[in-house]
Specification:
The chain is 34% helix and 14% strand. It is an alpha/beta fold. The structure holds aspartic acid.
Amino acid sequence: MSPQGTPKPHAMRTARPADHVDNGFYGQDVISVRQFSREKLVYIFSVADEMRTLVRRFGSADLLSGKVLTNLFYEPSTRTASSFMAAMLRLGGRVIPINEVHYSSVSKGESLPDTVRTLECYSDVIVLRHPEVGSAQIAADYAAKPIINAGDGQGEHPTQALLDLYTVQHELGRLDGLKIAMVGDLKNGRTVHSLTRLLSLYDTEFYFVAPDILRLPADMVAEVKARGHKAVEVEDVHEVIGDVDVLYITRVQKERFTDLAVYDSVKDHYIIEPALMARARPNTVLMHPLPRVGEISYAVDQDPRAAYFRQVESGMFIRMALLAAVLGKA
Ligand code: ASP
């Protein structure tokens, strides 16, 4: 990616209509979970609760009527793209979906900065997924309208982490004093990176469970420990399964491997079966950002501790809350 032209100073974002709610999110980008404090999370989660009630009672509302979202996806997506779309539609807004960038001018070589500067002429907010770490920040540097990071390579996936944390809160009723095991591709899994950082805001004990080549990057382990958390790295999930409140498993990120033989050697390293769940606590929450490609057997879906489809539903409420917040309507 070669940025072109001059980044827009963020000061240019001051010309705003007066009819917005001053919520600390209005007009802002959502690039990294590092932007969130515990107070901000309480706010977003309370708006998400309201969105849940709204959808259950009325199905939709006209809070964002007249607003347009562009969904700009350079990488495949099922849940993130469609839940942002559902969130916007349920709030009365409209969506420009660009899911196949090879049908757009990107395939002619147009740069990311030019693409976002074009699309913001048509829309009020842009949700971006891109394969390169740091791409969302680059887009935000050039766009005057809010950019929401929907995954930048192996970097971050902040809206997934928000919905993951919101799910933990819903399932267990608290966020402090929890033990969580992150299992699978901790090296490449951006959801793991974002969720680990968010959980670092709380009193959390971390167990990072991965084969040697998929361990969490050393700087992240060091960051967690520097914040005073217990962080234990193990390879065998049996060592921790009976002791954790949350079991968060991810798929091995095939698209990040240059050598598929290496991928094949690790892809089936962890498979959650009913026999393994029998060793977990009665209230352990089993989570997965999805898609699963074999890490959780279908037989586990009936287990009430399996929360991954509840995570999916919560994602829409979180994204409704975020859209309403950055557009100054929450
Ligand atoms: N859907 C998540 C992501 O986009 C998790 C995954 O793909 O494994 O990062």
